[in-house]
Amino acid sequence: KQWYQRRVAITAGIVHKKDRKVHRKEPKSQNVYLRLLVKLYRFLSRRTTGGNFNQVILRRLFMSRQNRPALSLARITRQMKSRGDKTVVVVGTVTDDKRIFEVPKLRVCALRVTEGARTRIIKAGGTIITFEQLAVESPLGQNTVLMQGRRNAREANRHFGAPGLPKTHAKPFVRLRSRNHEMARGKRKSRGYKA
């Protein structure tokens, strides 16, 4: 990229079309509590050495809601089977999952825990802590397991790509599958497009 920019600068003046840096330096949200957490973890990431736990937490606090997908109790339970009594850290929401009947004793730190999940965790003898408490207990992320939800689980992701093209499984936006709804799509111009 740099040599290309240098060459263009020599030939046709400086090119500014690649100037924009697209990464967040702060959250878009104006939520006071989130901003206080950012302040705290910015300090910790600057002052602590030994691992990048606090930098990761800080970066995830900046993320949009699409990039902070919810994590279900079932997934947490499955992941924690072999990890002993460590603290689960989720920069996002922890949701309940009715498909599991037994919830083990968990120690969870999350931005938000839904009412159903909270009830089940506490009933099983577990505890839920905030990020402020986590910063006091383990400022370097000792005895913690960082987890994230699946970003590709959104229904919108199924539509990405061109439906009808060979070797793609993209889901078309159709009202229903029938004889005259997007049949022969991709084969001729009158039906969407011709490949």
Shape assignment: flat
Instruction: Give the number of DSSP strands.
Output: 5
Average pLDDT: 90
Number of helices: 6
Helix content: 25-40%
Task: Give the biggest beta sheet.
Answer: 5 strands, parallel
CA radius of gyration? 23 Å
Low-pLDDT regions: none
SSE pattern: HHHEHEEHEHE
The percentage of residues in β strands lies in 5-15%
- How far the N terminus sits from the C terminus, by CA atoms, comes to 33 Å
Category from helices, strands and their pairing: alpha/beta
What does this protein look like?
By secondary structure, this protein is α/β, with parallel strands linked by helices. The protein has 6 helices and 5 strands. Strands 1, 2, 3, 4 and 5 form a 5-stranded parallel beta sheet that branches. α2 runs antiparallel to α3. The longest helix has 16 residues.
Short description:
By secondary structure, the chain is of the alpha/beta class. It has helices at 2-12, 32-47, 53-62, 73-79, 115-123, 131-137, and strands at 71-72, 87-95, 107-113, 127-129, 144-147.
Show the helix and strand layout.
Blueprint lengths: L1 H11 L19 H16 L5 H10 L8 E2 H7 L7 E9 L11 E7 L1 H9 L3 E3 L1 H7 L6 E4 L48
Parallel strand pairs: 1-2, 2-3, 2-5, 3-4
Labels describing this entry:
alpha/beta; 195 residues; 5 strands; 31% helix
